[in-house]
Amino acid sequence: MSRIGKKPVDIPDKVKAIVEHDILTIEGPKGKLQHKVPFGIKVEVKEKNITVSRSSDNKLHRSLHGVTRTLIANMIKGCVDGYLKELDVVGVGFRAQVQGNMLNMQLGFTHPVNFPFPTDIKISTPNPNRIKIEGIDKIKVGEIAAKIRRIFPPEPYKGKGIRYVGEFVRRKQGKAVTK
């Protein structure tokens, strides 16, 4: 039995959870999320908690048991609190700004980089060197942050690029120092 999968997920007072035809719907103050429950996994909504069980000890069902429970817990946390990722834009002349549904970045290329983002994700730039990505879906917030970082990942010699806040970039010595 999965140690994570057998733990029930508590439902806060301000959240509604409904299971209909293998689709779990979580609705909270920040929004509404849906998840299709995989075949062989059973989700039951009781008074104040959600339990996840599996139909057999098949390898596929065992692997999906804990994952499904974790996804449900992430959905509840997202509908109540939401998720936030922050990125730093490091480099001389590097900056970012939001224009409508487009993130416009100057990253030292010959052209500005425009990154369109979905409407259910909120991107803001409190200052030109910081990008905040907020949303209720943990997976989408993480994917958008990773796609933005992939445009110009931090390089090890000067440290320029887009990095997560608090990320340590290991610096290398240049060619002139080593003999």
Structure explained in plain terms:
The chain has 179 residues and is an alpha+beta fold. It folds into two domains: 9-80, Ribosomal protein L6 (Outer Surface Protein A, domain 3, Alpha-Beta Complex); 83-164, Outer Surface Protein A, domain 3, CATH 3.90.930.12. Helices cover 20% and strands 37% of the residues. It contains two helices and 13 strands; from the N terminus they run E-E-E-E-E-E-H-E-E-E-E-E-E-H-E. It has helices spanning 59-80, 138-151; strands at residues 9-10, 16-20, 23-27, 32-36, 41-45, 49-54, 83-90, 95-99, 102-106, 113-116, 122-127, 130-135, 161-164. A four-stranded antiparallel β-sheet has the order 11-12-7-13, with helices on one face. Strands 1-6-5 form a three-stranded antiparallel β-sheet. The protein is elongated, with a radius of gyration of 21 Å.
Key terms for this structure?
single chain, 179 residues, alpha+beta, Outer Surface Protein A, domain 3, four-stranded antiparallel beta sheet, three-stranded antiparallel beta sheet, 13 strands
Mean pLDDT: 92
* Broad CATH class of the largest domain: Alpha Beta
CATH fold title of the largest domain: Outer Surface Protein A, domain 3
Secondary-structure element string: EEEEEEHEEEEEEHE
DSSP helical segment count: 2
Q: What's the overall geometry?
A: elongated
Class of secondary structure makeup: alpha+beta
Distance between the termini: 58 Å
Number of folding domains?
A: 2
The percent range for helix content is 10-25%
Provide the spatial order of strands within the biggest beta sheet: 11-12-7-13
Largest sheet descriptor: 4 strands, antiparallel
Relative strand content: 35-45%
